[in-house]
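It is worth pausing here to work through a concrete case rather than discussing structure prediction in the abstract. The textbook approach is simple: state the sequence, then state the predicted structure, then interpret. We follow exactly that order.
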Amino acid sequence: MAYFKDEAELQQILGALFDQLKADARVAPKISEAKIIIRWIYDEPKGVVTIDAAHPPTQPGAYIDVIWGESDLKPDVEMSMKADIAHRFWHGQVNLMAALTRRQIIAKGPIPKILKLLPAVEPAYTMYPKLLREMGREDLVLKK
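Step two, the predicted structure:
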């Protein structure tokens, strides 16, 4: 089942999550400390998002920048996956190591840097379903 009908919906929904995460005091400072640029490349539907934690944020109240679409920034780590895998990941239902082993997620770059960030994003596993409900998208909330 495809969770997102097109790139615009993918960006609207995951964009709302990333907007919360980039200003969240539990998550974003830990990502910012890593001084890393991460690019996610989604498929089915297509989408590209870059997290810039290597440079000072450009928006007030944010700890990191989130850039949708193409970016001139050179990522330290690039993660490619189907958008459905990302949707399940943000629900806390994807084990990153298992997904990498199964090639559900293809990573380029220093994987240990990403693994160190996993504890930092754990609050997102409850934030994402809550956000979906607030957006009126209960249909996208996965059961545990």
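Step three, interpretation. The longest helix spans residues 7-21. The chain has a mean pLDDT of 94.
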